[in-house]
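REQUEST FORM: STRUCTURE PREDICTION
Request ID: SP-0412
Submitted by: Lab K.M.
Chain count: 1
Length (residues): 322
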Amino acid sequence: MADNKFDPEYFQIIQPLVALKASLPPPAPITDIDSLRAYYADFELVLANVPDSPDITETTYQIPSKDGTLITLHRFTPAAAAATPGPRAAVLHHHGGGFVNNTVVQFRKDIKRYAHASGLTFYAAEYRLAPEHPFPTPLDDCYAALEWLHANAASEQIDPARIALFGVSAGAGLATGVALKARDDKVSPPIQKLVLACPMLDDRTYWPEDHPLSPYLMWTGTANRVAWGAYAGADGVKEISPYAAPARAKDLSGLPPTFIDCGELDLFRDEDVEFATRLLKAGVTVELHLYPGVPHGFEIGAWNIRVSKIAVENRVRALDNL
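STATUS: Completed
RESULT:
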């Protein structure tokens, strides 16, 4: 790249991959959900490369969603949490994947590193994916997990007043949708904290291929349109539920204190900064981080560089005093 905007450390990590891809035939263009899934199929290998964390006990439960379907709820308990008398704080994690890809199992190493670093028990629902299960099903699955935590707080030794929602990418959009619905449903005690990593919040976001930052995107404008169409029938114009696309919400007041971060070279950058600004104007406490020179998913694809370590540390710190 003649005008390389990448963080130098990040570019050093990805340079071999860039060279390899340049030597191969170009991938099929993203035109529909099948081509999108094929385009990002190797992200599972990227997730597998995240180092495993020690001393995490993994448990699964089968819990009912709104439509009666049983879904899997995973629990990740670090040794520090197991040794702490209850009731304890807990974090409900929502994995990324554009609403159409990935699983908790694929994200388990990433979830475990936050559980280990924070000393907190993490839960994660295996929510169903679009387009096979479009909105509101994925949101209903995640909301059912929150309801289950409240209903089973005593047996799980959870303090329902100390529950945080944590989400990555589309999972952060789901976490925000759950927070909006919990606010509207007057869930008590209310959610204590929102931690949103590079959140996917606005179905209207699109950068064309000739946008100056398009060459740096790991998640493209075209992928975004296909994913939002699969999830919520969105076309970027027609109105859709704010529980699906939280940036559509007219009123953001009453949401919990919120942490948001994003890379400078991320398609979601502008919508995330705007959402943080709207939260502030609505009276919500906000912590916002924008990391220069890195794209979407940088802290997973290049987990061992300085900016990634800082980003992970900041997310963990956001859970302090939960």
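NOTES: The chain has twelve helices and eight strands.
Reviewed by: T.R.
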